[in-house]
Amino acid sequence: MSQRQTYQSFVNMNKERHVTWFDYIYMIYHFEDIPDDLILSVIKITSPDLIKMDDILFLENLFTNDKYQDKLKQEQSKKNIQYWLNMVHLTGVFEFMSYDDVIKIGEKLVTAWNNKIKAEYDTYEFGKAHLLCDEDEEEVLITIHQYKENEAII
To answer: pTM (2 decimals)?
Structure first.
């Protein structure tokens, strides 16, 4: 955990008033040296732009047409391509956090991404966000794919 001011410590220091997440963000930006675009990055992570290509969804920030075309030329299935091109290794991104906390972040991201998919496409036909957890290795990944619950992923 960071040695910097946490939300909970900020709340504890301000017990006499109702503290919101907006107050916390204001305080952090006011007193810490944080890049101006960090909050925009967080918004893009929680509500990513999506691309629909060949009836499958991709995270725009991770997608390149060259990679997609290369995978097609290698005769990989579109489902398989979608699965791997959308994968984000959350424990790598949040390596400073505990495994359990990264799972909590992943669960929130799955909910947010699926809400966005449902709002924009009114279906999960083109893909749905899924959290992948390996307890033994303490690895957490997230991806968008069309695989069904018990379908093999290769």
So the answer is: 0.85
